[in-house]
């Protein structure tokens, strides 16, 4: 399997590239034994759970967006929905439509970015998309057009694609006219065609055969692909309300990372993201997306083979475009952009699906509607433990390679999860003090 | 546009035939959203390579370089000693250093932590000797010389392009220092203060965003930070009794550019940011350490 | 007036050429208003009118009369606007001024001026063809029509007409509406502009309950009436219509006393109220942007990544921005109070001398849309005191049609003058430029840079010289040009030194630092025809010997016997043997005859102030002392507003002024 002459070997990627945020990969192998395999997140914590204390819901929406520049909408809408549940706000159905459309915009731009600018260069052997574009310009340009289609949705509904400004509890600060929304159609029609082409192009890539039975977790939608509502389901039969994540899962501190890791109370790890959603919620895919999934061999290989997550992401782009077009066609401008609501004390909690997986928020709120305490669990802190399991399983296949090649492969595996490391560093407080920031093996 | 109101920047007038400038993009404490502005340039992104050599951009490329850089774009604020050291060494390896975004330019949302050091920190942190975290989160210019700044949370892609093309041409980037109101009026957005009674920080805030918030039905929250000559007291007096009492003004200012000098002074004068009371009697408001987080390392 | 076609730059600047006097009143039933809209649209016009959007009456393109804001009323007071749909009143025009003004169409917020291209060593400056679809304004109030007339005078009535504005205005058709519903911020009655539509309209409507009484203002309007086959209004309708503006007039209760207002305002530049209002003012620019007459603009450059082309775009600017009065190395109006005074004194004071009326029509927009509710009616009353004298008006200069476009010239040689100053000798210069006058200047452009105003420092038979200090990026780039490089020139611009006044007089020429180059053509003109003048004295100052420019010329002049020349420096080095001190120390009281002398002074503003004071102290009259002013300039032809200084635009009316013309403001801070 491998034939290494050194007794102890260290493989390190001091700063994982083409991911969002700052993470480090550290592996120590002694003989055949993997001593350590850590995805160490050294992104400096920004203490968001502390920053939102004293704030009202709409302020929290603005603040938590800044956890992540790639998926701010997921953060914003999770807050909005959590407070709407607490305060029993009934949304205008047209507002719900726009909310889903906003989500699809974010998914489309995030997935197109990840596929073309971050991940595809691994499959084609380039350091980055700019280099890749010198040989495959039309593919990269198609990816940029797909990304822009998502950006166009975000800009119309939220003013800008990074940290859009319109999400409010009860609806939006502003809703577009029917004509403005319809004007998105041509670009999205082209995006739908090009998303389908992207699926077919990706299917021609060769995927490392690395397989592992995963435990998956995703939101399964009740009336559509799960993003903003539904049931949290797992591959081993869990069913949980989106506000009840904490009933089952806990976050733990590990010494080598500034991000918490989430597992269930028995320490079992789970994987989130496009592959999990395709497997657990595939029956809710738009027919065109289901078609695309069929063309790439169905969900089963995606479930087992991590490197096929890029296919799941592309299938979801097809879904995003297809459902976005339907939402646009059905839209009627609501009478008011948002409904009035009254704050109340209690626990505002919800889960939604960010492009890279389920996130959970919980806010303890006082009578004035201000946050007293907060817990924010981003997707990457849930994925992190499972990623490390996968790394351990994957390692033997690269140990025979020279260091640089081996670490490249490991980095490529990490990119399969689209880790969003800035998000992962939400945790606050103290335990950092009791433990060294990073453990130096040996 | 008041093109002459550009931020002072060192004069860079390379001959037009100069070899491509080498560019680095690095981050400190931040959300990566401003780096996304570079990735969001669309087709222009693919042509950047003709005129610039992007030698360090971890979010986008596996090819890495420690410099030297003709132009270094820095995202994020300084919140650890290690970052401060790193920044100083980056400065030595950079020709022009340009901050991108509210974090790098004025500390960002995480700079609110700076208000916690007296009253709140001891109540939150059992061991106040916090490993490797500085008591305040500070902008890049507090640590090294900054040649130009792109404002905003996030920055505006158009201003980024303007910076790059201005460097190519050899002139100052046109980054107007005027109120958001001017942009609202040019766009044709009706004033939310006058027409809807919605408090708005636009009169204090530098343009560059395209005056998004008022066009989307809400008051400006100053993510581009204070413009020169920001008349905070005038706004406070003018909107007092119209939905902007002192506490509300402090709350509104206490977001992404709160740590900028004019806003910080105005916040301090109005009792501090929400959640970070400036008197210790109120300190109980803050949340305590989370109990479930005690780990068993290694698992 | 043609319909259904586009107008271009070359079209006649036709406000409708045929106003008609027609006492007939026509009747347009409410239900048929849409026929009018449809007719205008069928003629190929974009119909712009009021619509109720998100709680505000805005002007926008109207597809049919159904989009008009029937039943909407508004309430306006300083810093507050609320509009609502009234259930008991279905009038179409039942509101007061909208936050939108029609200048959005006649003078849009952003206009592309041209593209500068670089192809190898060659430069090309391209001006776009201005094709503007014809627009019909539906529902303009009398105050708004007065504002359009004011902008016509500003942008079309000067020596240079604004090409874009002319193209847009030549395609406008206006349907005015008598104001029936003034708001709490209106004061058109004080400004003499409303409430009834008297002039500037093709058609004017008076709204009654069931329709509109129509008056015809032009042949174009008459044509519309004919094609709509309107019947005459009956006597009761005419009577009811007559009462409408009377009721509006009575509803306007707050007045501004305009009697002698300009003089009272200008007479109070140091009033404490300026500083007080500046504490309330946010300098947010809202007042100037909503004002239907404010016309100041700035030009920005957008370059492409390979720096081969740059697009110049003109955008609305405001005298309230800090950058508005900035020049390389300084700013003329750093304090908010300077900028507030600049705005108000221009609007109600110096505008009269420039354009024959005040720049205010009493629409109240600046009062309503000030976020902190500053009311100019209050400020005027506080600052301008009681009226001493009647107002005056002046006649306007005649419009010339030449807008001034860039021509390309080539750098022949580059001569260093000081460590930061070079003289560019230009070849291939247009004959019209070589025929310029001493003291005139050029707008000098490179692709991607803002154009810089540069005085001509020498006229040669085959070209001109420009002496340029590298003060900012544009001037730095200019000084880095090499022989063979091209640059763009527009000019010669402005009013130069009045050499003709020196005949048979003693001539005193005073230069400080970089003030010498603009004087050199004057000196050479004088020396070339030396016999026309009596004594000629030249006093040159610089900070240090190293800062002296044009040294070969100075040496040449020093060698002449028919010229008295003194050179002084503020700080001398070891090898300096000449005088040390400021230029005024070289004014020889015994030699200068205050009656017979004419003085031409150019240099830093403080130096010019000091020199003028000294010369006045010797008994020289202020109309014999000429100075050349520096201000922020963008257009060079009196259209962008930046260099406005009292009743002058420095670029158009100067840069050379007599001390008498500048008056007391010359010595004030922040003008």
| Number of helical stretches of at least 4 residues of chain B | 12
Terminal residue distance of chain B: 59 Å
- The CATH level-2 architecture of chain A is identified as Orthogonal Bundle
Per CATH, what is the topology of the largest domain in chain B?
A: Rossmann fold
Mean pLDDT of chain B: 83
Integer count of domains of chain A: 1
Mean pLDDT of chain A: 88
In short:
The complex is a heterotrimer of chains A (442), B (299) and C (671). Chain B is an alpha/beta fold and 299 residues long.
Outline the structure in words.
- A 3-stranded antiparallel β-sheet of chain A has the order 1-2-3, covered by helices on one side.
- Chain A has helices at 48-51, 57-65, 72-86, 93-124, 129-135, 137-158, 178-182, 185-203, 245-248, 274-281, 287-295, 299-304, 309-330, 379-394, 403-415, 421-424, 431-434, and strands at residues 8-13, 23-30, 33-41, 167-168, 171-172, 217-220, 231-234, 239-240, 249-252, 261-264, 346-354, 357-365, 371-377.
- Chain A has a single domain (48-424), classed as Cytochrome-c3 Hydrogenase, chain B.
- Chain A is built from 17 helices and 13 strands.
- Chain B is built from 12 helices and 5 strands.
- In chain B, helix 3 (81-92) links the parallel strand 3 and strand 4 (94-100).
- Chain B is globular, with a radius of gyration of 21 Å.
- The model of chain B is unreliable at 1-16, 118-131 and 280-299 (pLDDT under 50).
- By secondary structure, chain C is α+β, with helices and mostly antiparallel strands.
- Chain C is 26% helix and 26% strand.
- Chain C has an 8-stranded mixed β-sheet with strand order 3-2-8-9-10-11-1-12. Chain C has a 6-stranded antiparallel barrel with strand order 17-18-21-20-19-22.
- At the A-B interface, helix 1, helix 2, helix 4, helix 5 and helix 6 of A face helix 1, helix 2 and helix 9 of B.
